[in-house]
Specification:
Length: 316
């Protein structure tokens, strides 16, 4: 009996301590230094308003007032860091070739019309700018705009080149980089630990495990940014006839596990910014901010800016 009481007392003490530290992490952890704060993030520059990952898209997003440009990087055969999402050019240019097998001068222009991945039955029709830009083009044009770099392939030379460009342009305080693959994030951090990194997918799963077991308040985190999807948006992207009960259940479960206000509040209290992607309508914008997300990533920069202005969501 006495042993049982001791065990219950220990468990109760752990639960209470965990709950306290979840809400007041500063007791154990120094808040991460924040050099920029982003509420409005333009996915691929705003893929629904201009052709994705083009200078026209980036210019438009900055003119609208975005806080951050999100983009993707690959390395060409002649070792140029280019801004493009797919390793293969078929979807974006119509040419069945890989960026890594071509020199920069050989890269074809984007197609005039590109589908928008996170908006059902939406196609973006581009203007005159169909060129695949260099990362240096972005850095030259927007020296004061934070950039979120998705390193698309596990390539040591690409990681090193991106780091060298960030350092050359004095942008370590204005850049976050990473990928969903843990191996890439580890290499990014090893190459240049001064550039903040994103949580990889395995680290997100580990984060959730720590959160639901009550251990998260006790564990140090090297990442500065959590960038996660809102799983419920699949209901808007997939044809209901092809969305069976099991898929609906999986989406609901993932959404219930990820979209947790107390998790977001704990991370932001530790100086970790939380971005939710890719949201394209006001209902989802509102839900993300109500949950305590730092920022929202969108394909519609103008739509998100209008929503934020109408709701008085100026950057603090």
């Amino acid at each position: 009996m006495c042993a049982a009481v001791c065990v219950l007392s220990t468990i109760a003490g752990y639960v209470l301590t965990s709950a306290l530290l979840l809400r007041r992490p500063s007791i154990l952890h120094r808040r991460k230094r924040r050099t920029f704060f982003s509420r409005h993030i333009s996915h691929r520059g705003g893929a629904a308003e201009n052709l994705e990952n083009t200078m026209a898209a980036f210019r438009h997003a900055v003119e609208v007032g975005t806080d951050m440009l999100e983009l993707d990087c690959h390395l060409t055969k002649d070792e140029q860091v280019v801004v493009s999402h797919d390793a293969n050019l078929r979807r974006s240019t119509g040419m069945n070739a890989y960026i890594a097998d071509m020199t920069y001068d050989e890269l074809p222009p984007y197609l005039c019309r590109l589908g928008v991945s996170f908006e059902k039955e939406c196609v973006c029709e581009g203007g005159d700018d169909k060129r695949i830009p260099l990362l240096t083009d972005v850095f030259d044009a927007f020296p004061n705009t934070p950039v979120n770099i998705d390193v698309k392939v596990n390539n040591d030379k690409l990681i090193r080149k991106v780091s060298e460009l960030v350092v050359k342009y004095d942008r370590e305080h204005l850049t976050v980089w990473g990928n969903y693959r843990n191996q890439i994030v580890k290499k990014c951090y090893k190459e240049n630990p001064r550039i903040p990194v994103l949580f990889s997918l395995p680290r997100v799963l580990q984060l959730l495990g720590l959160y639901y077991t009550g251990l998260l308040p006790f564990v140090p985190l090297k990442e500065h940014f959590l960038e996660i999807p809102m799983p419920s948006i699949v209901n808007k992207l997939i044809d209901p006839h092809g969305f069976n009960r099991c898929l609906r259940l999986a989406a609901w479960l993932a959404d219930s596990l990820l979209m947790r206000k107390t998790l977001f509040e704990h991370l932001t209290a530790r100086g970790i910014q939380v971005y939710v992607w890719v949201l394209n309508d006001e209902e989802d914008f509102q839900r993300a901010f109500d949950l305590g997300a730092t920022g929202v990533m969108t394909d519609f920069p103008s739509r998100l800016k209008d929503f934020m202005d109408r709701n008085g969501m100026a950057k603090p």
